[in-house]
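Please fill in the sequence for the structure shown.

STRUCTURE ENCODING:
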């Protein structure tokens, strides 16, 4: 409610997840992490790409539930996959392209002498 950061997680990116399956599992194909989401994947490539997206969405939803009781709770998304994840989340969220840099600007503005 007072604008403080309560916590968050850092997740492996979609590319890292799909590459981990390729590298660590016999017989699975390499999948482009930018492959489209399929609600009901019907082949291995779609299942890998959609699984990586859903794993990320599930982690974000779980973290959001921990702060959702606050009426102003908002999920901030950053990173290259944010535009692909946002439509799947179905929760109050905002894409902030340069979240870390904007945070540094805010901190610097607070620290600046009057």
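FILLED IN BY: designer on duty
SEQUENCE:
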């Amino acid at each position: 409610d007072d604008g403080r950061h309560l916590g968050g997680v850092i997740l492996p990116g979609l590319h890292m997840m799909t590459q981990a399956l390729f590298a660590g599992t016999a017989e699975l194909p390499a999948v482009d992490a930018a492959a489209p989401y399929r609600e009901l994947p019907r082949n291995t490539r779609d299942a890998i790409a959609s699984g990586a997206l859903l794993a990320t969405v599930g982690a974000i939803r779980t973290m959001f539930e921990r702060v959702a009781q606050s009426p102003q709770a908002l999920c901030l998304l950053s990173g290259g996959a944010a535009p692909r994840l946002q439509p799947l989340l179905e929760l109050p969220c905002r894409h902030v392209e340069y979240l870390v840099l904007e945070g540094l600007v805010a901190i610097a503005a607070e620290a600046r002498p009057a």
